[in-house]
Amino acid sequence: MKTISVVVPTYNEEDNVMDVYRRIRQVFSEKLPDYRLKLQFIDNCSTDHTRELIRSLCERDEDVQAIFNAKNFGYNRSLFYGLSQAEGDCAVLINADMQDPPEVIPRFVAEWEAGYKIVAGVKTQSRENPVMYFFRSIYYYLMKHSTEIDHIEHFDGFGLYDQEFIRVLREMDDPLPYLRGIVAELGFKRKDIEYEQVKRKKGKTHFRFFALYDLAMLGITSYSKVIMHCCTILGGILAVVSALIAVVTLFMKLFAWDSFPMGTAAMVIGIFFLGAVQLFFIGFVGEYVVNINARVMRHPLVVEETRLNFETENVERLYETKITQ
After folding, report:
1. What is the DSSP string of 292-318?
2. pTM here?
3. Residue 213 CB: number of other CB atoms within 10 A?
4. What is the C-alpha separation between 180 and 185, in angstroms, rounded?
5. How far is residue 154's CA from residue 140's CA, in Å, rounded to a whole number?
6. pLDDT single digits (tens) 42-58
7. Phi first, then psi: what are they for 311, rounded to 5°?
8. Residue 184's closest CA among 147, 130, 212, 236?
9. How far apart are CA 23 and CA 136, in angstroms?
């Protein structure tokens, strides 16, 4: 019997933990009875009752596993680490808010059995805020057309990953992994499955503006050179234009001193414009530098506080992988 791990990152999801357990259990009992389920929660230091609920599930169901992080290491790092620790023949990554329906998992498994190493869930529709969906669409479009890899539009990590791919994740030495880019970059045989994302029913999203901004900047600074190219090109264009304006102004003042007054408005506008351009690109350079610094420091993805219900023979291997990171 093949084993499928379902990895669920959590942070203050006390309203959803039990629903996640029931719905995923139901999907496997009704539609995937020939597979063994390993349901793995990785909790990012929740401050509500999420951990107590997960502990109770682990106590009554040996197939429920848990990793409790020592502190909040961020959504992206936590889910990547949880996926890299998954046991079984493959792993499914799904968020605890249940906006990505577990009922799609049997379709993932069918494509996996057909030979695909990665099955990616792609949102064709979403019942989230239409403004947010619009900006997400713009971001995915820009990422797809501004990098050398074929980014998957409207893919947030929900999907199935073969154990071969998970082994590659364990070997990566990157403290700032960007899973969406890694999936598109590594070139495993992949199948995209379309689905409709539903609206969150319980709890509140923890993805605020700055969290989304950090994730977007991580993707851009990890895989795109376009901003730096634009910086160089725009700087060259502005330098040429400024030189031409300076030459024209000089000749006009020499040959028409009285009829060609040089007002301060043009100078002030030009200074503010150039200052804004400089600040914009300095900010982007700073984003690159911060990510480079984090990668050079080589801190671990997360620090575990404890883990529950992992098989003894696998714990040593998994911790060995973590330490070498």
Report:
1. HHHHHHT--S--EEEEES--HHHHHHH
2. 0.75
3. 11
4. 9
5. 7
6. 999 899 999 999 999 99
7. -65, 135
8. 147
9. 28
